[in-house]
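step 3/5: co-fold with zinc ion
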Amino acid sequence: MKATARNTRQQLCVLTPRSFALMVITAALNVGCSSSSREQPSGALESAEAGLVKVLRDSRAVDPALFLDGALVSEVTTEECTLNGGTRTTCLRLNIAGAPMNDAQAGPYCPPSITSSAKEGGIWFDGSGTVHDVDGAFIVSLPELYDDDRWQMYDPATGKVYIIDGAEGCEVAGDPENSSGRDNFCLSCSLEALGGGIQQAILIPTEPVPHATPTPVRGSNPGVALNGVLFGPPAPVDLILSTITLGVFDDCGGHANPHEGYHYHAATDCVEIVEQVDEHAMLIGYAMDGYAISAHLDPAGKSASGLDECGGHQDDIRGYHYHAQAPGRNRIVTCLQGESVDQVRGGPGGPPPPPPK
Ligand SMILES: [Zn+2]
Ligand SMILES: [Zn+2]
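step 4/5: write tokens
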């Protein structure tokens, strides 16, 4: 893993004059509110007094201005939409670039040889929480790690790692089940091999609508990073492993295939983009329900406390927001507290969705 990939951070503070004014109003309203209604976590927006609800929602909507330059490839438009909880409302249509618009580099993925350093490869995690550097030694350790002697991902005579890259790497990455006969390969699908970022259209409610029950994040994208890259659902690690291939992630926790383009399976410092006025973790993006996603750790390296089952909580400055899971958990957000639009993979201008499996 690289030491760090500090980015062109936006030195934006969350207290715009407008939101500051709203905070004052919120505080004023709060005097008249019972403190218990303020302390409820996710349901608070629904159950709090009407005036307060309005203020919170107005100040917590998705702010397209926080996306980095180039992350949104066209004008943001508003359209009517129906959310998965049945709510008819308006949504923002965001056309995202599908490639990082900061200096968070995509790749490298596979180390060329068993003597390669961590700098020459990416990372691997299977969801248990451990993040492995994919260096030469990691490739050698695979039979031990997975207690399976079939892992032999390098030429014992030369130490060269077996790699499928270029267009074929992207093809196999998009369809690991059909990679039989190509066992024991490290997969690399670079942005260049993909022809650049795959632009995707996503719909996010203009204002978050709390859902009666949290929706687990399974096969659909849970959100988007402010640098223009999708947060993907948990990677199918078991499927990847059962084919004895490694669909390695780069140091940002991203990788690519022709269906989803370049996307993240971990939230790292590559997406820490908007600093906060307090010591709170930086803003990294938005979930598909419109709630903000903050980094896992704050600038002091501390994780947030009092998180609900989805990894979110509420505070006075930001309202309800998620904190990304630690890298290595193979999920950015566990579940969504708000209603969202069922996203179509690929989207306009993108490739068709993969055949059902
Ligand atoms: Zn993936
Ligand atoms: Zn927080």
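step 5/5: annotate
Confidence is low (pLDDT under 50) at residues 1-59, 345-357.
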